[in-house]
Amino acid sequence: MVRVRRIAVAALTVLLVAACASAQGPSAIATTAQPAASPPTPADALARWIDLQTANVLGRFRYIRNSDQVVTNQQLQDSVGLRARLKLDRAARVSVIVAAATGTSFTGSWNNTGIGTGDPVHAFSVKQLYLAVVPARNVEVLYGGLAPIRGESTEITSYDNDAYLVGERVSVRRPKDWFLDEISGTAGFLGDLETPNVFRRLDRLNEVNYGQILASKKARSWLTASADVTRVSRVSTVRAAAAIAVKDSVALDTVRYEQYARRGDHAAFGLAVTAEKVLASRFTVGMGYASIDPQFGRLNGDRYGPGRRVFETGTIRISPAMSLALFATQAFQNDFAVNNHRRVDVVFTYNALATLKHAGLIR
Fold this sequence. Notes:
Helices cover 10% and strands 50% of the residues. The protein is mainly β. The protein has one domain (2-13, 59-358): Porin. It has a 16-stranded antiparallel β-barrel. A hairpin with a 2-residue loop joins β15 and β16 (322-331). The two termini are 45 Å apart.
């Protein structure tokens, strides 16, 4: 049954590609003479085919002490992240998206520099590669190596920001026609936690152990909420989250609440609350509380992991292309071993994409 469904999806995708390409073809008869257009700039010519979406270079100092009071990490790391879209037709109704990054696992996009704890690591691989088709307005079909979607949930109660899977997804976004702003359905395989290279995971496209239905709604100008049901290896988890914009507050700008409830032999409940405030336009501070059960599987953000904890964040925008982020967390009242009992991260980010756009080299 799985193989039949996969073949049907592939056949549908091929038909959609052909239909969209045909629809974009030039008209056979020119009805009105047009003045000669100026020759396109190199940036315009590149933008016709390639949409560079992410180009980040990062450096991080990381300090981690576990619940046995042993310092397990005190090191410098680096990271590179690239993401681009190849547009197969002028309207970009058929595209191929590729994302490549450093890191060696499901929860990591960092390489050790060799300074501090750990040996140098030079891993870099394509982690996402998928076909995206827009067969109708506000409808998108994806097939290949994807990232999970979270709605208003974050990596605290869902999957790490660096997570991946292979499969297919259909998303419909029609807020004017439906009560919900978005409905997305995903089916695929989630696993191979130490195999970030998508080319070594594409053979999993004929397997299904993951399914998700997600819905989101902007209920008010100040309130956006989402909910999803995710089933992995026959275990179901229900998630819900809401982001609230706080108006006319001296102390807060945004508050986010998220929770999950897992069923099965290891049924559990977890939650997180986060608050942020922008100060003087360049400085953002935040704090929060999280409670993640020990059977969660260590697939959420590696800065958090399982356990009860408080955390603090801060971001300084140095320039449009550079920023400095701070993160600290302290776990407490946990009756099981916690790897991230105390952790401090200092992260420098250089957004090369912003520099390229400012220089006019890309659109």
